[in-house]
Amino acid sequence: xxxxxxxxxxxxxxxxxxxxxxxxxxxxxxxxxxxxxxxxxxxxxxxxxxxxxxxxxxxxxxxxxxxxxxxxxxxxxxxxxxxxxxxxxxxxxxxxxxxxxxxxxxxxxxxxxxxxxxxxxxxxxxxxxxxxxxxxxxxxxxxxxxxxxxxxxxxxxxxxxxxxxxxxxxxxxxxxxxxxxxxxxxxxxxxxxxxxxxxxxx
Length: 202
Fold this sequence. Notes:
Distance between the termini: 41 Å
Structural class: alpha+beta
Number of helices: 5
Strand content: 15-25%
Radius of gyration: 17 Å
Number of strands: 9
Helix content: 10-25%
């Protein structure tokens, strides 16, 4: 049985025939693959601190980000995907989300309200670690609440594992600075939601 996001189709129902809507939805999921690698993305809108410090490079600036690797079970086209953007720019920093420095696009959207679920599950997929699956109540779950849930989980994970971790890979906990981690999307693969994380590429 194919996974379909009814909210994606509903907003387009009056705009296009069924075949066009299905093609648009397929393109939406294809765009949510987020395969591991280094990519160029438009720079995010500046925070006040970035403007004052001179770190903001202008509206035409680009950034290089690298997606964290994920196990095969959590790669490929997802059943559902929730994107996180600020002013149309992808991959806000977790530190800015948790401290309310940015306003997510659609921050107050009830992102799973139309699924008919009372709860769902998600896990923090991190290379080399088996993290437990966590329950996620759907009632009152907005895009902003979901993003902060992920941001806090990543912070706690790094706080526990960074002092103990080993390895030279760029995504080993001891080599990852929380301030560099970015949230691209939450993808659903039929078993659980998995955050698509990225960090600033060198």
